[in-house]
Write a structure and sequence with these properties.
By secondary structure, the chain is of the alpha/beta class. It folds into two domains: about 110 residues, Rossmann fold; about 220 residues, Dihydrodipicolinate Reductase, domain 2 (2-Layer Sandwich), CATH 3.30.360. About 35% of the residues lie in helices and about 25% in strands. The chain has twelve helices and 17 strands. The strands form three sheets. It has a nine-stranded mixed β-sheet with strand order 16-15-14-13-7-12-11-8-17. Strand 4, helix 4 and strand 5 form a beta-alpha-beta unit. Helix 4 runs parallel beside helix 5. It is globular, with a radius of gyration of 21 Å. GO terms for molecular function: nucleotide binding; oxidoreductase activity. It comes from Thermoanaerobacter thermohydrosulfuricus WC1. It holds the Pfam family GFO_IDH_MocA_C3.
Length: about 375
């Protein structure tokens, strides 16, 4: 099997996570990285043990050895970099959101199709083995008709008014924050697992800290001491800390999603409950190797991730035996394995349907978020057309 040489653009939190996952595949070589300038790129290359580095991503795109590019930058750069990479004839794996709006996503989809290039959006949460198993349970009718879906995605990384990050600013992250950042993962996962689509939304947004305190120096500078007024500037916040969205689905099901980034004690918890006419299931991302199965006239059970107990579709993305937990880093590995096997087998040239989230899925979540923002602003139900 030949090795595919890959370039990573952006080396904050998620870029190194991509690198670690790719290296675990064995047939991918992370050949180059790019960052905001040459000095930072050099420092990150040494830290991550990558041979080539660039202070300008356009120089990386000129590298003829690079077949595929991962876009791991702040949101506002995704569209531009992804477009330039496609025009340079590189396959593209992009962090979500794919772009700042659905119109930009439409253009990326068009270019990728014209150039017959593989494209993917990093909705990695689909790739917990139990999510693939749950999908097959529903497809095979184990839950019966889906009546209702409820859940949440809650975090506490913005719990204090002194917590600050570029994601708080619309010019860098977009018009929505909590819904676009974490709600998009919840919505993508639910539509993937159930096979049904959201077709109407009614949203309630809240910004609990309308003013936040932005440190004037790197946070490390203040280690061991409290901020004083001269250490920060007050910044008006226009994106949501919290949202609850009522949902209607195209099969007649109803539901709701809550997202909250100031939820004390919740580090990164995605949770859902799916209620059918025969059974129910629920799943908690902080206990990703357990799937609860509920019955009215029988014993409830907890299915523990074990390849011998899973549907063959889920078994394909399970690397370890029962009792050996697989978590967040494994989801990226399993997704990238499907993407790069698709490339190696020329699936894009043969017209084969990809078994991973593509730019079309990225566009879907952007459009859903736009309609949810519209609903919150206009205080009414909005139909997803």
């Amino acid at each position: 099997m030949r090795k595919i040489k890959v370039g990573i653009i952006g080396t904050g939190f998620i870029g190194p996570a991509h690198i670690e996952a790719l290296r675990r595949l064995g047939f991918i070589e992370v050949a180059a990285i790019a960052d905001v300038n040459q000095e930072i790129a050099k420092q990150k290359a040494e830290l991550l043990n990558v041979e080539k580095y660039y202070g300008d991503y356009k120089e990386l795109l000129k590298d003829p050895e690079i077949e595929s590019v991962h876009v791991c930058t702040p949101n506002y750069l995704h569209y531009k970099i992804a477009k330039d990479a496609l025009l340079a004839n590189k396959h593209v794996i992009c962090e979500k959101p794919l772009a700042m709006n659905s119109s930009e996503a439409d253009e990326l989809i068009r270019i990728a199709k014209e150039k017959k290039l593989v494209n993917a959006v990093h909705f990695n949460l689909r790739f917990y083995p139990l999510m693939h198993h749950a999908k097959k349970m529903i497809e095979e009718g184990e839950l019966g008709q889906i009546f209702a879906i409820n859940g949440s995605y809650q975090q506490d990384w913005l719990f204090y008014d002194t917590d600050f990050n570029w994601r708080l600013l619309p010019e860098f992250s977009g018009d929505s924050r909590a819904v676009a950042d974490i709600g998009s993962h919840w919505l993508d996962l639910i539509e993937f697992v159930t096979g049904i689509k959201v077709n109407e939304v009614c949203a309630d947004f809240a910004t609990f800290y309308p003013i936040r305190k932005k440190p004037l120096k790197p946070v490390e500078t203040y280690a061991g001491k409290l901020l004083s007024p001269e250490d920060y500037e007050e910044v008006k916040i226009e994106t949501e800390d919290y949202a609850t969205v009522l949902l209607k689905f195209n099969n007649g099901a109803h539901g709701s999603m809550t997202v909250n980034q100031v939820a004390a004690g919740r580090k990164n918890r995605l949770y859902f409950e799916i209620y059918g006419s025969k059974k129910s299931i629920s799943w908690d991302s902080e206990r990703p190797n357990e799937l609860w199965i509920g019955r009215r006239d029988g014993t409830n059970e907890i299915l523990i991730k074990d390849p011998s107990l899973l549907n063959p579709y889920a078994r394909e993305i399970t690397s370890f035996p029962g009792g050996h937990n697989e978590g967040f880093p494994d989801t990226s590995k399993q997704m990238f394995k499907k993407v790069y096997k698709y490339i190696l087998q020329d699936g894009h040239l043969k017209g084969e349907t990809p078994d991973f989230p593509t730019f079309e899925d990225g566009r879907r979540e952007l459009f859903l978020c736009e309609q949810i923002v519209k609903s919150a602003k206009e205080n009414k139900w909005v139909v997803i057309e």
